Amino acid sequence: MSHIVQIRTEIRDEIAVQAACRRLELPPPRNGSVRLFQEEASGILVELPDWLYPVVVDLASGGMKYDNYEGRWGDPKQIGRFLQAYALEKATIEACKRGHVVREQSLADGKIKLVIGVGGVA
């Protein structure tokens, strides 16, 4: 029997945001405000490669604000890379807090398989 799973990533952990930026070799995130074309946004600023404006992470809501002008001011794939890195880092942090062992495996299609071993084996 198959099941449909829907996942919505909420970004609520500043340490995981910092780790995701390190993983992707991005500049360190910083708190601040930025004008996104016609709107001011405040939060944690994440600078993605070749983006005109930074992504603004709001830890309180778990959301992000950004303006890439339908891909003209930044490749939307970079958002996917950042969300993947954040999810990996957050899962690793939480697993380690519980004493689990974490192992990563890079797949040919760019995905990353995360194996979490309960009881110290991954």
Description of the structure:
The chain has 122 residues and is an alpha+beta fold. It contains two helices and six strands. A four-stranded antiparallel β-sheet has the order 1-2-3-4, with no helix packed on it. It has a two-stranded antiparallel sheet with strand order 5-6. Helix 1 packs across helix 2. The longest helix is centred in the C-terminal third of the chain and has 21 residues. The chain is globular, with a radius of gyration of 16 Å. The two termini are 27 Å apart.
**Largest sheet, spatial ordering of strands:** 1-2-3-4
Structural class comes to alpha+beta
Tell me, what's the shape? Answer: globular
Total DSSP helices: 2
Number of strand elements = 6
Biggest β-sheet description:
4 strands, antiparallel
Q: What count of structural domains? A: 1
Question: What's the structural blueprint in terms of helices and strands?
Answer:
Layout: H1 14-23, E1 30-36, E2 39-46, E3 55-58, E4 63-65, H2 77-97, E5 101-106, E6 112-117
Antiparallel strand pairs: 1-2, 2-3, 3-4, 5-6
Helix pairs in contact: 1-2
State the main characteristics.
two-stranded antiparallel sheet, 122 residues, alpha+beta, single chain, 28% strand
At a glance:
The protein has helices spanning 14-23, 77-97; strands at residues 30-36, 39-46, 55-58, 63-65, 101-106, 112-117. The protein has 122 residues and is of the alpha+beta class.
